[in-house]
Design a protein that fits this description.
binds aspartic acid; VC0802-like
């Protein structure tokens, strides 16, 4: 039994709907389908969800939303007409227009992209339509409610033969619609797969799965046929963003594999993400770079010898109010690496506070750091691979501020100056995948 989620570009117009139909109907196991809202039909086009956000802003500013709503509704009408469906959404459109007039909450409006697309897809496939507001739940404080969702969703799906459940939204107590973060239809798909006890969660998009680097920037990037959930999380941290981060846990906990596939090239094998592999993967899987970090370092002779050092240092970290993502250490120094946007004090000021509290000799702050990553099957057993990565950076003239390899050998993270990030990633990709 397969749960499939189709992204916005897979449902951007009638032509794409036809491809989705072929895919769904080619395997009777594809019983539950989770659609996004219509995405871009070409580079210059707009996503329906973005148009709904624009409508909401216009409404807040007291401007008319009629022309924007007309544009949105025409997209759905065009799909319906092109597919020759016996379906009219006029009363839905009128309801949405009326509620805009009454200024209902933002999440309600932006969720309508998925809601309307779900109705059309259900009609086209001949599947039951299940409104996500009836089966996906959030708490009063806005947090997602996994337990209630699992109970209602499991029950509802157990009574459905085939169904379409729109992505991205659910409801909070009192019935108000609430959305996941942007890109959240992936999360709905994972929740449906979990509740349906699916054998596989297929995530259909417009790329052939995960690659060794972003294929738009690296034409020589290699696709990754199979990896574990662990690799997927590490690749995400490295910057690869095919799937929403919160879509991993619901299926991972139940051991349901994810299969990323390309709607436009369904014959391609895509990327399978599985709980375990019988044999460890060898070689490098991918490289990536993420900017936006700051590193604060304090130095003092025998710093870490002091028995209270770790206690004092953790309370300083806690007081900074920001989760440090890495803590590279030397014998006489320790560094904390933070996402810069989350810091309330400047990195230099933070360093100074720590220097005083730890009675350290000096403090240093690097304001613009990028984390450049190599994700691999097992770097501990591949010293040549790591040497090649470091040599590539040296050849490209990139200096490494700090380096950390996870002890499981899956991730090597190198801190470099932000301006060197692109060169570093290019050099790593060339050395590990192109030579
Ligand atoms: N349509 C929503 C967005 O654009 C959710 C999704 O596509 O997953 O973010």
């Amino acid at each position: 039994m397969i749960v499939c989620k189709f992204g916005g570009s897979s449902l951007a117009d009638a032509g794409q709907f036809r491809k989705v139909y072929q895919i769904v109907k080619s395997d009777p196991g594809r019983r539950f389908v989770v659609p996004s809202a219509p995405g871009k039909r070409n580079e210059a086009d707009e996503k329906v969800t973005d148009l709904f956000y624009a409508c909401f802003e216009a409404c807040e500013e007291g401007r008319s939303v009629d022309h924007l709503l007309d544009r949105i509704f025409r997209r759905y009408d065009d799909i319906i007409a092109d597919l020759g469906l016996n379906l009219r959404l006029d009363s839905e459109f009128e309801g949405i227009r009326r509620l805009f007039g009454m200024r209902l909450g933002r999440d309600y409006f932006v969720s309508r992209g998925e809601y309307l697309n779900g109705i059309i897809l259900a009609n086209y496939l001949g599947y039951e339509f299940i409104d996500a507001a009836d089966v996906i739940f959030f708490r009063q404080d806005g947090a997602f409610d996994p337990d209630k969702t699992d109970v209602y969703l499991t029950e509802k799906l157990s009574r459905a033969r085939n169904a379409v459940i729109p992505g991205f939204y659910g409801s909070a107590p009192g019935g108000t619609v609430k959305t996941f973060p942007r890109g959240g239809s992936d999360i709905t798909g994972a929740l449906v797969a979990r509740a349906a006890r699916a054998d596989v969660y297929e995530n259909w998009t417009d790329v052939d799965g995960y690659f060794s680097a972003d294929p738009r920037r690296f034409p020589a990037a290699r696709s990754i046929p199979v990896m574990t959930f662990h690799h997927l999380r590490e690749l995400r941290y490295a910057g690869a963003a095919v799937l929403h981060e919160d879509a991993i846990r619901p299926v991972r906990e139940k051991g349901i594999p994810i299969h990323i596939k390309n709607t436009n090239r369904p014959d391609r094998s895509g990327t399978r993400v599985v709980p375990h592999l019988t044999e460890k993967l060898s070689g490098a899987l991918g490289v990536g770079g993420r900017k936006g970090y700051a590193a604060v370092t304090v130095e003092k002779d025998e710093l870490r010898r002091s028995p209270s050092f770790f206690r004092t240092f953790s309370s300083l970290l806690e007081r900074s109010g920001v989760q440090a993502e890495l803590l590279p250490c030397g014998v006489d120094s320790v560094t904390a690496v933070f996402p810069r946007h989350a810091l309330t004090a400047s990195p230099a000021a933070l360093g100074e506070t720590w220097r005083e509290a730890l009675e350290a000799e000096s403090a240093r702050a690097e304001e613009s750091v990028a984390l450049v990553s190599v994700v691999a099957g097992d770097l501990t057993g591949a010293p040549v691979l790591r040497a090649r990565a470091l040599q590539a950076l040296a050849d490209a003239g990139v200096s490494v501020i700090f380096a950390e390899q996870s002890a499981d050998g899956v991730h090597l993270i190198l801190g470099v100056r932000e301006e060197a990030c692109a060169d570093a990633v290019a050099a790593l990709h060339k050395a590990l995948f192109e030579d």
